[in-house]
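Task: encode each sequence below as structure tokens.

Item 1
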Amino acid sequence: MSKFVSYVRVSTDRQGRSGLGLDAQRDAVARFIGAGQVLREFEEVESGANNARPVLAAALAYCRAARATLVIAKLDRLARDAHFLLGLEKAGVDFIAADMPNANKLTVGIMALVAEQEREAISARTKAALAAAKARGTKLGGLRSNSATIGNNGPQRSAAARADSANRRAADILPVIQSIQADGITSAAGIAKALNERGIPTPRGGQWQAVQVQRALKRSGQAPATGP
């Protein structure tokens, strides 16, 4: 009987607590291996952007010790995770993916190179969006205020100036949000996390929350993000 070690991963603590995605991965693994013996399951909650993957390292070590095959549910879900793919390629461990059972080390090596290029493209798009915002005179990292205008025109003008500044900031941040959405992250909470990971500040210079993402999308005339 074949021996397997299962590895499942989600990107956020919230997904880990809710089981969102994990149960589907477990079901896919169970259907695929059938009567095969699962020696142990390793579960990790970690962003694909984080190269520190201690649970994956432990799973690979366990496979080597037990001479077992690492089985994952969906290789295509992890196709942009260069660290994961390169880890599989170099680990000296047999592996199999339920959704791509014919994938081999050559396949994974090619996918890893594509993943690295995609990450570089994401970084380039983010830098280009920030550079364009800076070229338009946007002060990144905080709301611009004109104290003379506020003082001379009263509360109504002050509110209008703040609204105009917020609208400009929303327009500046929109290309970054769109690049995040293009990568498959569509929930407001997921977009907020990605913005924080990329070092993009809110209009007041703080950390993004889901509600702030929804406001930015609304101000820029875009459809709201899915989910909370």
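Item 2
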Amino acid sequence: MATLKDVAELAGVGMSTASRAISGKGPVSADAARRVQAAIEALNFRPSSIGRAMAAQSLGMIGLFVPTFFGSYYGTILKQTDTELRAVHRHVVVATGCGESSPREQALEAVEFLIGRDCDGVIVISHDLHDEDLVRLHKMHPKMVFLNRNFGQLPEASFCADHERGGELAARTLVEHGHRDIAVIAGPSTASDNQTRIQGFFAELARHGIEREDVTLIESDFSPEGGYAAAQTLLESKRRFTAVFCANDTMAVSVLARLQQAGIAVPGDVSVIGYDDDYSAAYAAPALTSVHIPTADLTRNAVRWLVNQCYGTAWEIFREFPVTVTMRASVGPAPRRSAAFAQ
């Protein structure tokens, strides 16, 4: 395989001249540039990625850690990251955890894997990592950004929506439709973003005189299977409810399915509100009312901020991400009498 030295010798120029002609950086005469180009074509020379990296002090790739590839939420993040990096001619290298260790240990191993592959920057999405983990990883690789994580020790590197506000809006939507017999299907209690949205939800209910102990709370795992199983548990509990708040849309869609199978009309008998407003929500049956988290905007600004750090670009960065509710068909007025469901 031809080397830079071979190109320089065939073109009759020094290696530094050949390097400048190939990279386009630095002075090269028109005649020397033509001879170098002719030598490249004659030798079928292709600069190695390592050589380009040594010249540019960059491998031209950004690492991304996600806990899983499954689901429309992570799909939005992956798609937006790819879009932003394509625009600046950079590659994305994606890693998830592996093995049978705890989610936290898998996340640590995966981020360290990306750092070890000399990624120019790293995007981290994890609610399993502790604050001290983020500090240590950031020391290992300062060009790092945290998505969907409010990390007070590194606020510039953190991009997160106001999940407490999101929980408040979900509760307010149900109360304003007359619901007081309410159930909640939460995500994992260890997930920081889940904790915050549930906290906001119950704080808003309390302002309307609904106490936490009067609300049925079932912890799940954000998955379709988890949402379906939680709906079954709710039906078997014989607790009265006219509305269900699900901590993400993936679980909410499964809840809609289980209620439909049980012959329970949505929203005639029970209203359902989800969270995230991912692209599946509009196509549920009935269409799912959901708290809208601007995930694409969050991802866009997080990636652009990191690109600025890595490559000296000057993207304008926004840090305000309004949280709203997208009203659809799955929420309606509370029925005059709530019912207990046992299936």
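Check on item 2: The radius of gyration is 26 Å. The chain has three domains: 4-56, 61-160+295-323, 163-288+328-340.
End of task.
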